Automatic annotation (TrEMBL):
<keyword id="KW-0645">Protease</keyword>
<dbReference type="InterPro" id="IPR003738">
    <property type="entry name" value="SRAP"/>
</dbReference>
<keyword id="KW-0238">DNA-binding</keyword>
<dbReference type="Pfam" id="PF02586">
    <property type="entry name" value="SRAP"/>
</dbReference>
<protein>
    <recommendedName>
        <fullName>Abasic site processing protein</fullName>
        <ecNumber>3.4.-.-</ecNumber>
    </recommendedName>
</protein>
<comment type="similarity">
    <text>Belongs to the SOS response-associated peptidase family.</text>
</comment>
<keyword id="KW-0378">Hydrolase</keyword>
<dbReference type="InterPro" id="IPR036590">
    <property type="entry name" value="SRAP-like"/>
</dbReference>
<keyword id="KW-0227">DNA damage</keyword>
<keyword id="KW-0456">Lyase</keyword>
<keyword id="KW-0190">Covalent protein-DNA linkage</keyword>
Length: 195
């Protein structure tokens, strides 16, 4: 699961390096800091055949319930009616410095790539009430994340970004891949005293 992630100036600079078009005002106005569900955040997608960075809101509305759907499972995203059209035709990439998860003791743990200053999460989007909204695709946690949580975002390598958003033939392969190892950090660690 991915319920929050972090974007900073380094993230914005990395986005500018890989896209062909940046929507007006995105880099200046983009969220910096912790991104929460329902917030607008930078997203990479195809627009007018160009790899574009723009802003979208995080979360699809739930039908017949309140709240938001913020994640879609890689294992079922092509089958679920809520996500099927988006995964077939509207895929995106969500860049982040790191994302957060909470362990069993409710301690906040951040996960980032060991080999890159930024990580790219696979996502999908759709138009909802005149506004583009996205969700993060999650998969089973790999060995580096499993001690904290059983799910993790589907992390893309830099050479997979354009394939994910453009190439319909690559979708099944990417959805079934095991993401790279991540490193984790905790600000505080709960300790118990033995008496």
């Amino acid at each position: 699961m991915c319920g929050r992630y972090y974007v900073d100036d380094d993230t914005a600079r990395e986005i500018e390096k890989i896209v062909q078009h940046v929507e007006a005002g995105l880099i200046k106005e983009a969220v910096r800091g912790e991104v929460r569900p329902s917030a607008a955040a930078p997203v990479i997608y195809i627009k007018d055949r160009l790899l574009t960075a723009g802003s979208m809101r995080w979360g699809f509305p739930r039908y017949q319930k309140s709240g938001l759907l913020i994640n879609a499972r890689a294992e079922t995203v092509t089958e679920r009616p809520t996500f099927r059209e988006s995964v077939l035709h509207r895929r995106c990439v969500i860049p982040a410095k790191h994302y957060y998860e909470w362990n069993a003791e409710r301690e906040k743990v951040s996960f980032s790539r060991e080999d890159s200053p930024i990580l790219y999460m696979a996502g999908i989007y759709k138009m909802v009430q005149g506004q583009e909204k996205f969700v993060v695709i999650t998969t089973q946690a790999n060995d580096s994340v499993r001690p904290v949580h059983d799910r993790m975002p589907l992390i893309l390598d830099t050479d997979e970004l354009e394939r994910w958003v453009r190439d319909d033939q690559a979708v099944d392969f990417i959805l079934s891949k095991t993401p790279v190892r991540l490193e984790h950090q905790q600000e505080y660690r709960q300790m118990t005293l033995k008496i």
